[in-house]
Amino acid sequence: MATQQQSKIIKIGVFYDGGYFSRVTQYYRYYERKSRISIKGLHEFIRGKVMEEESVDQIHYCQVVDAHYFRGRFSAYDAAKRENQLLYDRIFDDILMYAGVVTHYLPMFADKSKRAERSEKGIDVWFALEAFELAVYKQFDVIVLITGDGDYLPLIKKLNTLGTRVMLLYWDLEFPPEVSIPPVRTNIGLINEATYEVNMAEIMRSRKSNQIVENMFITIDEEEELSKKIQIEQPRMTEFESEQFEGVIIHIDFERGLGNIKSDDNKFPNIIFFRSRTEDFFNLSKGERVAFEIGKNERGPMAINVHCIDTEHSEGDEQDIEETEEVNGNIIDDDILM
């Protein structure tokens, strides 16, 4: 029977550095284990490790009460350029959701000057602020950090001032030389400052027969069996005319990646819907004259290959836009935005 002190729940908060964790999962998925790390299995391991370090008799007194995942994220248009990337992103979101992990994403934008690659600027600041704020308001007994970035050293020091114990789960991994992927490294300052430091790479190598460690992995066969149950029917969009048409953009929604064009031609509806999955979409603007071709999906004609043909629009175009808005009211309507 647990003592009075042990009868109190040990509240655990888990915080994932998504970029770091992604590289770790990539390593085990394609190289050493040929298996994907199970979030639920990892949380069970964390509970067991906290029970051991906190000298608690029974694991049910150690509970993960909060888990958060932070990462920069590419836009849907960029992800669509890579085969099945949107599907993989959604599947991983589902995995996190069912494991009770709250996701935090910041957009990753391309440098239009092409002088720098995309980056997840600001995500480390958000991670640190969220972790510290929740430690104050939810009074975690133990915070688990899954990261190797030395930028989080001040966070650990601040958590120590609150009396919150910090458990660092870390990996040091070397990818095969032929793949030219940088190794996964952990800042030594984090290891020294944490209350409990757990070398996960060593544990996963030395305890392959341990059932708790085995439960941290999902084999490829299990993953493939799960993926067979997911059937994706892509929208059918066929081009039935190669002729180019012109019109004026009367509405554009950058967040949803769609808009409406008032066409100059009467071969199809005066107001025609369009959607874009390319970065050129963000160069378009309301009131701009564009050229386009006609394709269709299940709901009828739609504009494809939309691109601007000049940088200015006439007063007549502006009048057409105003008249269209007066007739149709709110342009964002399911009958117009298909």
Write a compact overview of the structure shown.
The chain has 338 residues and is an alpha/beta fold.
Strand content: 25-35%
Largest pleated sheet? 6 strands, parallel
Shape: elongated
**The CATH topology of the largest domain is what?**
Rossmann fold
Q: What is the overall pLDDT average?
A: 78
CATH class of the largest domain: Alpha Beta
| CATH homology superfamily name of the largest domain | 5'-nuclease
Strand order of the largest sheet: 4-3-1-5-6-7
Low-confidence stretches: 225-241, 312-318, 320-338
Mind explaining what this structure looks like?
By secondary structure, the chain is of the alpha/beta class. It folds into two domains: about 10-230, Rossmann fold (3-Layer(aba) Sandwich), CATH 3.40.50; about 240-330, Nucleic acid-binding proteins (OB fold (Dihydrolipoamide Acetyltransferase, E2P)), CATH 2.40.50. The chain has eleven helices and 13 strands. The strands form three sheets. It has a six-stranded parallel sheet with strand order 4-3-1-5-6-7, with helices on both faces. The chain has a five-stranded antiparallel sheet with strand order 11-10-9-12-13, with helices on one face. A two-stranded antiparallel sheet has the order 2-8. Helix 5 runs parallel beside helix 6 (about 155-160). It is elongated. The N and C termini lie far apart (about 60 Å). The model is unreliable at about 225-240, about 310-320 and about 320-338 (pLDDT under 50).
